[in-house]
Amino acid sequence: EKMYSVKHINFKYDPKMIVMQSQNGPCPLLAICNILILQNKISLPKNTKQISEEELIKYVSEFLIAMIPENFESDESRLNYQKNIDDCISEFPNLAIGIDVNILFTTIDSFEYTASLIIFDLLNIRVVHGWTISEDDPMYNILTKYSYNAATDLISQLSDPDEENQLLNDEQIHDATILQDWIFNKNPTQMSYNGIQNLHTNIEDDQFAVLFRNNHFSTIFKHGDYLYQLVTDIGFIDKDIVWERISNVDGDSEFYDHEFLFYQHTENDSFDAEPLTDEQLAQQLYFEEIQDAEEQLKLYTPTYKEDEQLAMLLQQEESRKYEEEYEKQVQKSNRKRKVSNTSRKHTHKKDSSPTRQHHRKRASTRNVKEESSSDDCNIL
């Protein structure tokens, strides 16, 4: 049975308990439980030091059932609500290991609908992400055509040499190139600067939410003008660190205590040897999970270079053929000029009149130019 350690903290000057993450990083179950605990919606037994996964699921289930309204507008609405409850409970086992979430890049609340998200809706917990693109960005229309899953599928088709890439049209190839650059090069931490701005703007003060990032779920809270992520890494269980400020896309950590005061390092702190923070661990696990995909994406570059080299060779061969054909046409044109000049010498008599000689000379020059022009057109 999976067990989780419990840390005792203060939140708004009240004693609280939060559930700490295991070595596999934060999961949706912990994010949900910690929000419900800090909101006084569920309570753990006093002096709890450890709690099982089964107990956590039980607490959430009991709270969910307690939220069922006594009265419904109609039998149909009651049946629909009950169906949602049943679907939600069937998803509970996945809360401890991960649920199916597919990001859309438009807003912080944009996700493709899945049964897993019903849990958050019924618990009235907001799920957000920070992987958004500005409407003013030139790439906006391309990014917003795809979900994350659809985008990575398209990129894989383009980058995998075993795939039949000829089935992709020009627009898809162009989109895949843009998507690959924006997702894996410009915003590989699943947090964009536009996303951070939107999170700060659209989450209200004293509001909790679950942040989905790098395939993991974390509890976040807005205090004043800043967003903070609850630090649940087991390595910080004995420290006064409670919050980590979300201020940039790179995850440079600034730690804060239960009063949201900046944590001052002491001589006894050995942060160089500390375990990774929630955010850093989530990023590390994410990069490990997509390592195979990234290796395939790297194949795209040498494949592209090989194609480029082949195109250059073909172009050189085409240029060589063109030059040979051009030489043939020039030689043919020269032969025609010689025949034309010889013919005129034998058929035209000399005229002693300077004026006629002048006219013949101009006419002869004009004929040669026209003949040359005609030959040049044939060459091209």
Characterize the structure shown.
The chain is of the alpha+beta class and 380 residues long. It has 12 helices and 9 strands. The strands form 2 sheets. The protein has a 6-stranded mixed β-sheet. A 3-stranded antiparallel β-sheet has the order 2-1-3. Strand 1 (3-11) and strand 2 (14-19) form a beta hairpin. Mean pLDDT is 78; it is low at 285-290, 296-308 and 343-380.
Q: Report helical residue fraction.
A: 40-55%
DSSP E strands, number: 9
Strand order of the largest sheet: 4-5-6-7-8-9
Kindly name the structural category: alpha+beta
Give a short account of the largest sheet: 6 strands, mixed
Number of contiguous helices: 12
Compute the separation of the termini in Å: 80 Å
Tell me the series of helices and strands, N- to C-terminal: EEHEHHHEHHHHEEEEEHHHH
- Overall pLDDT metric: 78
Question: What global shape is seen?
Answer: elongated
The assembly state of the depicted protein chains is single chain
Quickly describe the structure:
The chain is of the alpha+beta class. It has 12 helices and 9 strands.
